[in-house]
Amino acid sequence: MIGYVARRVVSIPVAVALLLAHGAAGAGDRMAVQHTRQPAGVEGGLEYAYTFRVTKRGSGDPVDGAAFSIATDMPSMPGAHHMPHVAGESTGEPGTYTAEIEFDMPGEWNLILRFSEPFRDQVVISDMIEKQ
Ligand SMILES: [Cu+2]
User: Fold this and answer.
1) What domains are defined for the chain?
2) Which of helix, strand or coil describes residue 20?
């Protein structure tokens, strides 16, 4: 009976440790995103075609099959803009995605990439947007 109780007491911390290890494994897989952009709209406009290269931060391996949306915000005007969210689309190149974004105004913007696949993550990219 004493042995049984002792094992029960030990098993709880083990279960917690396993849960933490599982969570840590998920958190250990983080996305790293590099981007380039090109003007995509009319001259004097604020529309850009982005290319995102998505890799795993640890291994540097390209992340294929990623699903993510891109929200935008101006750090100097939080919540002031309500641009539509855009989905990243695979280019067919390993770990490479595109999206076109038309900004409301020039200035410093945050692009908030929210990944749902292949695992949840969020990456914020700061970008200074000028008229083309
Ligand atoms: Cu603004």
Assistant:
1) 27-129 (2.60.40.1930)
2) helix
